[in-house]
Design brief:
124 residues; alpha+beta; 2,3-Dihydroxybiphenyl 1,2-Dioxygenase, domain 1; eight-stranded mixed β-sheet; globular
Length: 124
């Protein structure tokens, strides 16, 4: 059996959709589909409990186009800096880095087919 070295991914943390109008999208997922809204940050982010998994909505910044291509998978890591070094060793650079002060840091990457994914390290 071929043993794989331990990875830096802990688990699939959540999946989110980019939306143009957060209030409209929250109304749909909460009121029409019946998902429980568990967290919302102003007009830019909303998280739902989707049967024990998290599903989220994220608005685009003013003047930015709504990204196409579906959902963004977010993987949690214990050490974001270490994970970024490991990806850099494979020729991958972060396309975007962000910080939600006191909550989490994240980095966005593109897979070989151009699909976006993120790594997130939560504050302890």
């Amino acid at each position: 059996m071929n043993e794989q070295p331990p990875g830096f991914i802990e688990r699939l943390d959540l999946v989110f959709y980019w939306v143009a109008d957060l209030a409209r999208a929250v109304d749909f997922y909460r009121d029409v589909l019946g998902l429980d809204l568990i967290r919302q940050d102003a007009d830019s982010w909303a998280e739902f409990d989707a049967g024990g998994r998290r599903f989220a909505l994220h608005t685009v910044g003013e003047g930015q186009a709504l990204p196409r291509g579906g959902a963004t998978a977010v993987f949690s890591v214990r050490d974001l800096d270490r994970a970024k070094v490991a990806l850099a060793a494979n020729g991958m650079a972060s396309a975007h880095d962000g910080d939600v002060e006191g909550y989490a840091r994240f980095s966005s990457f593109l897979d070989p087919d151009g699909n976006e994914f993120q790594l997130i390290e939560y504050a302890t």
